[in-house]
Specification:
The structure holds two protein chains of two kinds. Chain A is of the alpha+beta class. Chain A has 17 helices and 28 strands. In chain A, the strands form seven sheets. In chain A, strands 3-5-1-12-9-10-11 form a seven-stranded mixed sheet. A five-stranded mixed sheet of chain A has the order 7-15-14-13-8. Chain A has a four-stranded mixed sheet with strand order 18-26-27-28. The relative contact order of chain A is 0.12. A five-stranded mixed sheet of chain B has the order 2-1-5-3-4, with helices on both faces. The N and C termini of chain B lie far apart (43 Å). Classes of the chains: A alpha+beta, B alpha+beta.
Chain lengths: 738, 170
């Protein structure tokens, strides 16, 4: 329970940036318009796999208004490792092969169309399972041949393999009463941010420095990565994070910024590039594509005894995909063996997406959990409660679970949703699923400055991707005993604050929040010392509340913070508190969701009626923000479960068939279920006021909860996401033997 | 690929937020491009450019339209309202205030478009049902909020409007 003494923490305050955003005043990168700015058009490869034979920009360069064109040859040498502009071979459709800059916003697309590129198309393969076929075209013929644990040579597109073992799987299976074997598939999902990526860059030849305005979750990491790419000092790249129009991990790293930088240097002008949604979805994507073969041994009473899994994952041409540490879900399994194979495909590479690698694996884990429960006749909720890890159990492979509210969250999900008294109608069903997430802190820093009138500036290097600045202001105000309205949060640019980690992995309120608390406490200690001098009392008897510092013993001895701040600033210098942490022990989160669906067996249409989410949130610094994260995550999970996937045409061309938002279906307001959030508050040891990261967990269980509800409704189990009407109708026909 | 014939422009008069602007545009320019790039009214956002996300929604003669699909030349003689046009300088429209009060704003990129879709609805139907609200904003994609707080915010507008003495539709 929250301590009653808290005044600002726990309040449902509006986001600090809400008014600017609702008025249309917030400045996103595409809104930047600077004098003399050039606009960029991109030449993108229309083939999924091709060799570039020749690029001729002479016609484009003759077009009035065109200033410059660049290709891979103009990029810094380090760009070859993971090219921003393809050099000679293209491994996915939409890859940038050239960029043209022009004086106005209309010419670039014309100019890009005039660039002549000769390609030698090569056979492509986009689908994960097709890439594993012996006759599939091999994307990287000179790769090192991979072998599985038995020494068998693996198909040509397997580019990496690894194996981890814990306990004794053989023994575990031998002790099991039941063995379950299933194969699950997940598909490519885009983060779905509505604001396409964009950047503006300027180059100053006198100081040899770049300024980059961009939509990013971390301007410090961007500056570090871009300076490494260009082989210059971090201080020669100033990155300014603009208001971001969604990212969900997709804007953690740079993508097109180097193009603006190279063009800015080449032309001596400011250069702006904003992608179209179509370009954006073809250049990068969110979720990896997985095939998970999972074998699980269970005792009669539903205890999980052993698991053996093979994860085949693709995150694009580089292979990858699949986080083995998630293979047990939030359950205790003592005997586990996992093999992970990275498969190269001609698909865009993954950028991070909310709980990277985790909803994919949880779809397998939580679907099979239900299959097991049904077969052995245990309630799906009870089997989860029975196997849920306890404090001290291994939870992320080799890491143990600290004290959490996970068990409470699971119980609360059942309670709030009415699971135990659930009623079913025809073609109507219920499903439950869990999702675990690590939640780390990362390098964090904050400075809390008090101005001469007692107002406070909170200087942070952490980009606000989720309302975190409002929460950070609440933490500072709580510590200092001042009105949150007097706190202004300043993000600064990559040169004005110490270099903190990117805002990702649900770390910001946990990590930066802890740093803010330390900084505010530092400032408060200085204030108490100053007040003790002013009031002639011992500082141990002082307290700070309601904008003043007073003696607990004799309350008439008090001084207003504004007066104190003014006096101290001129006597001992400006007031500032500083807080930093290298890292904190992880504070793992768990979200449990119960979905209620209705399925039309004629059309296969699934209507998700209601989703209840109970989540261990530590302490909700701002409950409204926490609910907002949960509600948004559920819709992303619903899209993942039912509609969202990249659809590719046949080999050997493998064209992407749905790069636009018309054909790539994200949930609308008509698809949104009734959502109930139950915030379970189990304070963490190290988070500010017990806070825990909360953004990732609720996206993890939604898809399997829906899949489980669908089986409950119509008796068919779909193991392949997304669960489209076609798959349901087909499964129903097969079940009826038709 | 569209080819430009250099130098072909047309002078048009656009009435935006009650103000008339005489501007030279190319016939192929969309209303969205003219609003953002020529009039610098950047509160209207470009998400997809294909009419699917609704971020560029503006009101044309009171109806919500995706301005990326409207040619600027065809908007001549019509009354265009953008997000900049529904609030006084310091006083937000009741719909905007309700969005703030209900925590309906996250990244905010879709919000101007949704506010205008909501305004078009409330102007013709001051007390809509939840289903009518969902239908009215079904063309506006939001990836952050799950729509719940947005729907609640719109539901609450009539109350806020009557308290502030302003019609929901203004």
């Amino acid at each position: 329970m929250r301590r009653k003494s808290l005044s600002t923490v726990g309040q449902r305050l509006p986001r600090l940036d809400a008014a600017d955003k609702v008025a249309g005043r917030a400045c996103y990168v595409a809104d930047l318009s600077l004098p003399g700015m050039l606009h960029v058009g991109l030449v993108c490869c229309p083939h999924a796999h091709a060799r570039i034979k020749r690029i001729d920009g002479s016609r484009a360069l003759k077009l009035p208004g065109v200033v410059a064109m660049i290709t891979a040859d103009d990029m810094p040498p380090a760009d070859r490792a993971d090219p921003t502009i393809a050099a000679d071979e293209v491994f996915y459709e939409g890859k940038i092969v050239a960029a043209v800059a022009a004086r106005d916003h209309l010419t670039p697309q014309d100019a890009a169309g005039l660039v002549e590129v000769d390609y030698e198309p090569l056979p492509a393969v986009a689908d994960l399972t097709e890439a594993l076929q012996p006759e599939a075209p091999v994307i990287h013929p000179d790769r090192e041949v991979q072998k599985d644990s038995s020494g068998r040579e693996l198909p040509g597109n397997v580019v990496s393999s690894s194996r981890v073992v814990k306990g004794d799987v053989k023994k575990g299976f031998a002790a099991s009463d039941f063995i379950f074997e299933d194969v699950f598939r997940t598909r490519i999902q885009h983060q779905g941010y509505i604001e396409p990526r964009g950047a503006v860059a300027e180059y100053d030849p006198m100081t040899e420095t770049y300024t980059v305005w961009t939509s990013t979750a971390g301007h410090h990491c961007a500056a570090e990565d871009l300076s490494a790419l260009f082989g210059i000092s971090v201080n020669q790249v100033k990155v300014i994070a603009m208001t971001g129009g969604g990212g969900f991990g997709g804007k953690n790293r740079y993508l097109i910024e180097p193009i603006c930088m190279v063009l800015a240097r080449k032309t001596g002008r400011l250069v702006k590039l904003v992608l179209t949604h179509e370009q954006d979805s073809m250049l990068s994507r969110g979720r990896s594509e997985l095939m998970v073969e999972m074998k699980t041994g269970v005792s009669k009473d539903g205890t999980l005894l052993a698991r053996k899994a093979r994860i085949f994952g693709s995150s694009g041409p580089g292979g990858g995909g699949g986080n083995y540490s998630m293979i047990t879900g939030p359950y205790r399994i003592d005997n586990v063996e996992v093999e992970v194979f990275g498969i190269a495909t001609d698909t865009p590479p993954c950028q991070a997406f909310r709980a990277p690698g985790t909803p994919e694996i949880h779809f397998a884990v939580e679907s099979q959990m239900d299959i097991i429960a049904r077969r052995i006749g245990v309630d799906p909720y009870e089997i989860r409660l029975k196997n849920l890890v306890k404090k001290g159990d291994f939870v992320f492979w080799s890491r143990t679970l600290p004290k959490t509210g996970w068990r409470k969250a699971l119980r609360e999900a059942a309670e709030t949703s009415g699971w135990k008294t659930r009623k079913k109608r025809r073609n109507h069903g219920w499903g439950i699923a869990c999702g675990k997430w690590t939640c780390y802190a990362g390098r964090s820093h904050a400075t809390v400055v008090m101005k001469t009138d007692g107002s406070v500036t909170l200087l942070t290097g952490a980009v606000d991707v989720s309302g975190s600045h409002t929460s950070l202001a609440q933490i500072a105000a709580e510590v200092l005993g001042i009105d949150v309205g007097t706190v202004t949060v300043v993000l600064g640019d990559s040169q004005s604050t110490p270099p903190v980690h990117v805002s990702a992995g649900s770390r910001t309120v946990y990590g930066e929040g802890a740093a803010v608390k330390i900084a505010a406490e530092d400032l408060k200690a200085q204030l108490l010392e100053g007040a003790a001098r002013e009031l002639g009392v011992d500082k141990s008897e002082l307290e700070s509340a309601n904008g003043e510092i007073r003696s607990r013993r004799s309350p008439q001895k008090a001084i207003g913070i504004s007066e104190l701040a003014r006096n101290m600033t001129f006597e001992t210098g400006p007031l500032a508190g500083r807080g930093h942490i290298g890292d904190l022990p992880m504070a793992p989160g768990l979200a449990v969701q119960v979905a209620e669906v209705e399925v039309d067996p004629e059309t296969g249409a699934v209507n998700v009626l209601r989703v209840t989410c109970a989540q261990d949130v530590g302490v909700a610094i701002n409950p409204s923000t926490v609910e907002g994260q949960i509600e948004g995550a559920i819709l992303q999970g619903l899209g993942y479960g039912l509609t969202e996937e990249y659809v590719y045409g046949d080999q050997p061309e493998c064209r992407l068939l749905n790069p636009t938002l018309l054909d790539y279906r994200m949930p609308t307001a008509l698809d949104a279920p009734e959502i109930t959030s139950a915030l379970v508050e189990a304070p963490t040891e190290h988070g500010a006021f017990g806070a825990r990261g909360i953004g990732e967990p609720p996206v993890i269980p939604t898809a399997p909860a829906i899949a489980n509800a669908i089986e409950d409704a119509i008796g068919v189990r779909i193991k392949d996401l997304p669960i489209t009407p076609e798959k349901i109708v087909k499964a129903l026909r097969e079940k009826q033997g038709g | 690929m569209q080819r430009r014939k250099a130098g072909i422009t047309k002078e048009i008069t656009l009435e935006v937020n009650g103000e008339k602007h005489q501007i030279e545009v190319e016939p192929r320019e969309t209303l969205l491009q003219v609003l953002r790039d020529r009039l610098l009214l950047t509160g209207t956002k470009e998400g997809c450019g294909t009419g699917d996300c609704g971020a560029c929604t503006v009101l044309v003669d009171g109806k919500p339209v995706t301005s990326c699909l409207v040619l600027a030349v065809s908007a001549e003689g019509k009354q265009i309202v953008t997000i900049e046009g529904i609030s006084d300088n310091e006083r937000l429209h009741p719909i905007q205030q309700s969005f703030i009060d209900h925590g309906a704003i996250q990244c905010g990129f879709c919000i101007p478009g949704i506010v205008l879709s909501a305004k078009a609805l409330l102007d013709r139907n001051p007390k809509p049902s939840e289903t009518q609200i969902r239908e009215a904003i079904a063309g506006n994609l939001c990836r952050c909020t799950g729509y719940k707080k947005i729907i609640e915010a719109i539901m609450a507008v009539p109350k806020i409007a009557s308290q502030s003495g302003r019609g929901a539709g203004r």
